[in-house]
């Protein structure tokens, strides 16, 4: 746990803070490497896009790389959320700790931005895969149902009724025997399932972007809160100083008045003694 070094129960507090910050920065470095891996996988997949129409192998290679990128992405997102929670739980008690927290938040924001850029690159590959799979589906459906228009096929894909649509079309066509029809339907079903999985992955990515935007905003609010607390503390110190100065001035004024009263009493007493002495 990154925050475990901040309990202050053992050793030099400054050394503990330094060790905890070093752990934090090492974890940021690990995340940077993971994001570099995502970027590399996206770049390698992008090189395969022009070959998608040449056969299944380039698409399968790209899908494998996207799957690896997705796995890495899930791990990075979880760690970023946990780090953000650690930052929210870290309560600075000194100027040095406030500076450390600001550094933590700044590093976290930078990593989130890099992560989102890498996710954008992976998203481009997913879009290309979707387009190619959709093209393949339309091609295969036209083989099964030559009379179907592209608009009808697109509508069936969007409504998730493609299998029913193809079955109904093929029932009216006697060109395929039962085995051929089953094979064609199986391939169309497989391609449609793959397309649906890709579409679901795209929606998950959009949700993740929203989640990450919220994290960044929350971290920004945390910095604003720190600065507000610093300003309030400064105002409290200045107000306390003014109260101390005012109290000292009041105390000084009271002492001066007391001295004047004592002098007056002594003068009156002296006058009384002099009068008594002169009347004898």
Largest sheet: none
The dominant shape is: rod-shaped
Count of extended strands = 0
Structural class per helix/strand content?
mainly alpha
Order of helices and strands: HHHHHH
N-to-C terminal Cα separation, in Å? 95 Å
Strand fraction? under 5%
Number of helices: 6
Ranges where pLDDT stays below 50 over 5 or more residues in a row are: 1-10
User: What portion of residues is helical?
Assistant: over 70%
Measured on Cα atoms, how large is the radius of gyration? 38 Å
Look at the structure and give the mean pLDDT. Answer: 78
Give a description of the structure:
The chain has helices spanning 13-48, 56-89, 95-144, 150-158, 162-171, 178-279. With 280 residues, the chain is mainly alpha-helical. The longest helix is centred in the last third of the chain and has 102 residues, at 178-279.
Nutshell version of this structure?
It contains six helices and no strands.
